[in-house]
Write a structure and sequence with these properties.
Mean pLDDT is 82; it is low at 21-33. The chain has a five-stranded mixed beta sheet. With 170 residues, the chain is of the alpha+beta class. Helices cover 46% and strands 18% of the residues. α1 (2-20) runs antiparallel to α4 (65-81) and α4 packs across α5.
């Protein structure tokens, strides 16, 4: 337990440094990023939760420009950690208005997780970070693992997210 606690503290400090030091961006930009990214720990490891407000337009799996900067920093952090990573997509319980591309929230949540994973792996290749694609797993959970009550807009907004889970167990 003490060794795991020390690893968690070390990872959190590394993540804090990555997200708080970027001199070529205005402070307001970092503040906005901070409102949409959370870090927590549970038995699975270190969990970086990114709100879909920063990642995607509603109903799509196309990454928004601001999310790419944050994901580059997360890729750098994951390269330092060199641990197994799971990328999970989550949605709220509302049905999609346009089902042309995604017939259900299952497909949408998985597509979003895959898109985030692809971006991180691409960044690793371009910047020679050394992330091995074999360290990654991906999953889409639709509305089956909510963090908040889906009966309110605030709750639904909380539930629309991608989680990047750094496995610290072994």
């Amino acid at each position: 337990q003490p060794a795991m606690a020390a690893r968690i503290i070390e990872q959190a400090r590394a993540l804090e440094v990555i997200f708080n030091t970027k001199p070529d961006r205005p402070p307001g930009w970092l503040k906005t990023i901070g409102r949409h990214i959370a870090v927590r720990y549970d038995p699975r490891g270190l969990i970086i939760t990114m709100s879909n407000q920063i990642l995607f337009q509603p109903g799509t799996d196309t990454l928004m420009a601001d999310s790419k900067h944050a994901l580059r920093r997360i890729a750098a952090f994951l390269a330092i950690a060199r641990r197994p990573v799971t990328v999970e997509g989550h949605t709220d319980n509302r049905l999609l208005r346009d089902r042309t591309y995604f017939p259900s929230n299952w497909e949408l949540s998985l597509a979003r997780a895959v898109r985030v994973l692809q971006f991180i792996v691409d960044v690793s290749r371009k910047r020679k970070l050394g992330l091995k694609p074999g360290l990654f797993r991906v999953g889409g959970y639709a509305d089956t693992r909510p963090l908040a009550d889906n009966s309110t807009e605030r709750g639904r907004r909380t539930n629309r997210r991608v989680e990047i889970i750094l496995d610290l167990r072994s």
